[in-house]
Amino acid sequence: MIKRLKKNVPGPFYTTGECLSCGAPEDMAPDLLAQLDDENYETYFVKQPTTPEEIERACRAIEVCCVDALRYSGNDPSIIERLGNNPNCCDCLLPRKRNWFLSLFRK
């Protein structure tokens, strides 16, 4: 089980506390993530996204994190698909669809 940083607000978007504090995720979602400064060196969600625009910003923040320290633990298929159904950023994954082309060769 992946550990959540306790500073995250409750909800499906969270950070693990392993971020390098480069500022890239905060640049993507400044309204959702704590800002880095002289007194804060940790990346964490201060607000969960509620609008489609905020969800997109949260997904972009996850994508730009170079150490996979931002994650989504919810089960909304559209968000999981938006994040590429990637186990590096999604705790819940969608079932993989069978490749119909390969099934032509199996008997």
Structure, explained:
It is elongated and about 60 Å long. It has 107 residues and is mainly alpha-helical. It contains four helices and two strands. It has a single domain, classed as Alpha-Beta Plaits, CATH 3.30.70. It has a two-stranded antiparallel sheet with strand order 1-2.
Unreliable stretches: none
Strand order of the largest sheet: 1-2
* Whole-number count of domains: 1
Proper CATH architecture: 2-Layer Sandwich
CATH topology: Alpha-Beta Plaits
Give the N-terminus to C-terminus distance in angstroms.
38 Å
Let me know the largest β-sheet. Answer: 2 strands, antiparallel
Give the percentage of residues in beta strands. Answer: 5-15%
Q: Tally the helices: what do you get?
A: 4
Total E-strand runs: 2
Sum up the overall morphology in one term.
Answer: elongated
What percentage of residues falls in helices of 4 or more residues? 25-40%
The chain-level structural class is mainly alpha
Task: State mean pLDDT (0 to 100 scale).
Answer: 93
CATH C-level label: Alpha Beta
The rounded Rg comes to: 16 Å
The helix/strand series, from N terminus to C terminus, equals: EHHEHH
Oligomer kind: single chain
